[in-house]
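The freezer alarm interrupted the setup, so I double-checked each line after restarting. Inputs confirmed:
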Amino acid sequence: MIRALAVLLLCQLAGTILQQGTGLPIPGPVLGLVLLLAVLLRRGGPGADLREVSQGLLRYLGLLFVPAGVGVVAELNVFRQNLLAIVLAIAVSTVLGLLVSGVIMQWFMARAGEEPHA
Amino acid sequence: MHSLLPLFHIWVYLQTQPLLGLTATLCAWELCLFIDAKCGHKALSNPTVLAIVLLSALLLATHTSYQAYFTGAVYVHFLLGPATVALAVPMHANWPAIRKHFLPIFVSLTAGSVVAASSAMLIAHALGAPRAVVISLGPKSVTSPIAMGISQSLGGIPSLTAVFVMITAMFGLLVYPAFFKLGRIGDWRARGLAAGVAMHGLGTARMLSLNETAGAFGGLAIGLNGIVTALLLPLLVTLFGL
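Predicted 3D structure, all chains:
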């Protein structure tokens, strides 16, 4: 378990160093994700230890962003002052994102002529 | 009142320690998991949202500063970084599907991602929201740990982004059946991908409960959308002059 955690932290560290060194506007942990993916593709997959720890962390993803979400208490005024803009922006963009990606993918899949393997 | 003084001292002492914030976070989470199960896992009973509301109400009611709370909660918060890196493991598991349908996935995901982020930021900007709010809205379709990282690196407010991400997914869960019908999106691969692009983990979990293929496509869309948005959002922000 500790070795898997060390691997994840090393990837995050490498990603963060790369981000700080190059000034890229991409978060260090995302670069760490890409790095780990490259390693996994090269090595043919994660060991049992890394798979277990990763699944464990991802199972509790919902808990992990509670502390940051609570930070909204410090932003309540911002929220209240921009309520209409926020609500409209979220509603319209969510529907558009859903429709655009879904319709294009549907078109590709219909053209490929394969039955959905449901 | 005199007899309450020792209690007051304990309270003041605990406010400076990580113990209280950490304990409150974990207890609130367990309580909200229980409530969510009792409600039958509805979009509106999402445990993350419930826990955020409950803890925020507690902080406001007890006049506890967010800073005091965060000295404890930071131990949970820190795990977001390694959890983001850990997303590589399910992405690797989905790699054969990504390779087989690389072009369709790449095109539909990028288009959906760009349209969602652009429309969110342009609408908020047009309605007069300040820059920090507009930027915080950009990555709201992306899974939270990545979204918050993107928001921070572009000058947004990560905690606002975390809340926007949750509202997005909850709204999406309420309306997606109507829009799948409207867009005639019947293929489970397309449904799963669209759900993953527009409402990340929550949408994918719902798809997975309906159809395994849809769940797999949702899962790969979460990670890919995070990477694509991290790459493209800085360009969009520059393009729109935000």
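Quick read of the result. The first helix of chain A runs from residue 2 to 22.
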